């Protein structure tokens, strides 16, 4: 068996502890060999608690290390561009968290740098490795619901109760829930439908807490293939995810379709009858994403969420925020 591909996390935080560490532990193809975070005292504790071999003192030391094959950028959004360019300049492949950047032009610069270097560059759109979305994509591609006409994705969560405070700081975050989880919804619809976003019309709100980013929003997306789609997000609601696609001959729906913590039922309906109910477990989605990137790094297979594909998601986010400001539908 080949040596595991060695990852280091640049920007280690709560997401790494909750999602990424368990994913690395389940994999036989990747290993977490190091990390860096801005709080060095916390970094030392993390490395000791989680048996991480290398606690790098600087971003530069991590990216220059011979003990690292892939840099996994999980820093705040505003740091993604510089962190990615730093890693690429040191000859490292990069897997970058979503949203890829603060604006599409930054994403384009990141992709241009990866193209020039010939290094692998991907976006951690982990839901592309969820079995619920895989099954929906297969049913749509084989015509089980006819021609897709309508689609919707919803992601609600109580961000105000979570310890990740930087997500509400516009100096560090691309935006509120539109950028944080709306990008997952947009990407999930693009993935299951095999279509792209053409234009966006946004209705968004802030609450009375003094938030400097939006706290809820509804996006109306015109997509290729003549599909009308809706994305609904909130950072002030009880947790819920939902994905549905309506076709000319049937409907696919998945309550908790983007959820990784419990089994998910994906239902195919025609008329008033449930034709098929497929129960899947998305719990291995993060591990499958890491393994896929490792295989692509070795030159075997391809990674589903390339950096160049991520540019389209960033253009959709740019259009969504511009639409909120102008009150007009915005083209990508």
TrEMBL record:
<dbReference type="InterPro" id="IPR055170">
    <property type="entry name" value="GFO_IDH_MocA-like_dom"/>
</dbReference>
<dbReference type="InterPro" id="IPR036291">
    <property type="entry name" value="NAD(P)-bd_dom_sf"/>
</dbReference>
<dbReference type="Pfam" id="PF22725">
    <property type="entry name" value="GFO_IDH_MocA_C3"/>
</dbReference>
<dbReference type="InterPro" id="IPR051317">
    <property type="entry name" value="Gfo/Idh/MocA_oxidoreduct"/>
</dbReference>
<dbReference type="Pfam" id="PF01408">
    <property type="entry name" value="GFO_IDH_MocA"/>
</dbReference>
<dbReference type="GO" id="GO:0000166">
    <property type="term" value="F:nucleotide binding"/>
</dbReference>
<dbReference type="InterPro" id="IPR000683">
    <property type="entry name" value="Gfo/Idh/MocA-like_OxRdtase_N"/>
</dbReference>
<comment type="similarity">
    <text>Belongs to the Gfo/Idh/MocA family.</text>
</comment>
<protein>
    <submittedName>
        <fullName>Putative dehydrogenase</fullName>
    </submittedName>
</protein>
<feature type="domain" description="GFO/IDH/MocA-like oxidoreductase">
    <location>
        <begin position="136"/>
        <end position="252"/>
    </location>
</feature>
<feature type="domain" description="Gfo/Idh/MocA-like oxidoreductase N-terminal">
    <location>
        <begin position="5"/>
        <end position="123"/>
    </location>
</feature>
<dbReference type="GO" id="GO:0016491">
    <property type="term" value="F:oxidoreductase activity"/>
</dbReference>
<keyword id="KW-0560">Oxidoreductase</keyword>
């Amino acid at each position: 068996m080949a040596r595991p591909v060695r990852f280091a996390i640049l920007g280690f935080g709560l997401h790494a502890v909750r999602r990424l560490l368990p994913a690395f532990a389940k994999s036989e193809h990747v290993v977490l060999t190091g990390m860096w975070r801005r709080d060095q005292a916390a970094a030392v504790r993390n490395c000791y608690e989680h048996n991480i071999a290398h606690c790098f003192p600087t971003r530069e030391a991590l990216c220059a290390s011979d003990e690292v094959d892939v840099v996994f950028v999980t820093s705040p959004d505003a740091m993604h561009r510089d962190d990615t360019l730093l890693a690429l300049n040191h000859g490292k492949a990069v897997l970058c968290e979503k949203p890829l950047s603060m604006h599409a032009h930054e994403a384009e610069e990141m992709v241009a740098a990866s193209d020039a270097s010939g290094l692998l560059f991907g976006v951690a759109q982990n839901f592309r490795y969820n079995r619920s979305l895989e099954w929906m994509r297969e049913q749509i591609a084989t015509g089980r619901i006819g021609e897709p006409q309508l689609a919707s994705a919803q992601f609600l969560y109580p961000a105000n109760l979570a310890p990740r405070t930087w997500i509400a700081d516009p100096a560090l975050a691309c935006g509120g829930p539109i950028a944080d989880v709306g990008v997952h919804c947009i990407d999930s619809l693009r993935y299951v439908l095999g279509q792209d976003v053409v234009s966006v019309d946004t209705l968004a709100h802030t609450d009375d807490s003094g938030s400097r980013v939006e706290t809820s929003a509804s996006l109306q997306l015109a997509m290729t293939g003549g599909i009308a789609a809706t994305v609904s997000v909130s950072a002030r609601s009880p947790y819920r995810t939902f994905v549905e696609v309506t076709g000319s001959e049937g409907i696919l729906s998945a309550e908790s379709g983007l959820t990784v913590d419990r089994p998910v039922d994906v239902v195919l309906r025609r008329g008033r009858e449930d034709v098929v109910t497929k129960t899947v477990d998305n719990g291995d989605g993060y591990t499958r994403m890491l393994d896929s990137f490792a295989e692509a790094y070795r030159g075997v297979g391809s990674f589903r969420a390339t950096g160049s594909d991520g540019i389209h998601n960033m253009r959709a986010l740019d259009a969504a925020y511009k639409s909120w400001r102008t009150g007009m539908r915005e083209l990508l």
